[in-house]
Protein: D-glycero-beta-D-manno-heptose 1-phosphate adenylyltransferase
Amino acid sequence: MTPIPAPSFDSKVCSPADLTARIAQLPRPLVFTNGVFDILHRGHASYLDQARQLGASLVVGVNSDASVKMLGKGADRPINSEADRQALLAALASVDLVTLFTEQTPVQLIEQVRPDIYVKGGDYEIDTLPEAHLVKTWGGKTVAIPFLYERSTSTLLGKIRS
Ligand SMILES: Nc1ncnc2c1ncn2[C@@H]1O[C@H](COP(=O)(O)OP(=O)(O)OP(=O)(O)O)[C@@H](O)[C@H]1O
Ligand SMILES: O=P(O)(O)O[C@@H]1O[C@H]([C@H](O)CO)[C@@H](O)[C@H](O)[C@@H]1O
Structure:
């Protein structure tokens, strides 16, 4: 019987220990974004596709379950575990590498990755983000991608619960 291979996207999920070596293999300009990505929706898929088009590779930093708890999104969040959230992002063609961060902000991770372009959604005031100031220190830039389709995890959860 032909053995069934493991999902090929699993290899896009990178442990913090392997991160520096994996980043070195990615083509530049390298785009980085971060977030919770709890219940993946169309807004996320479009956002990540547009982010990828800004450069030659896209790395996504995902909040660990413990770090989501620090963000005040609700006691029951995240709905999906960090392993599941990483796997779904890795399954997207636009995403080249996914890794986890455990702090309240991705600043330490960004220092390690040193992206050429930092991306966040239009729901953020880009100029006020510490991440934007950080990437500027090595000549990187920050781009805001417009919030689309009025989709969010919180809205979906509201619909499910009502
Ligand atoms: N509809 C959307 N259009 C464009 N970008 C989006 C959209 N929803 C989320 N993003 C971006 O995706 C990233 C991850 O967002 P996040 O996981 O907070 O999504 P969310 O669905 O708004 O979640 P929540 O409702 O829990 O805040 C962020 O950078 C955010 O700006
Ligand atoms: O999915 P979210 O809530 O958009 O992701 C958060 O983004 C924060 C942002 O980078 C603030 O500057 C970050 O601090 C937080 O850890 C989440 O990733």
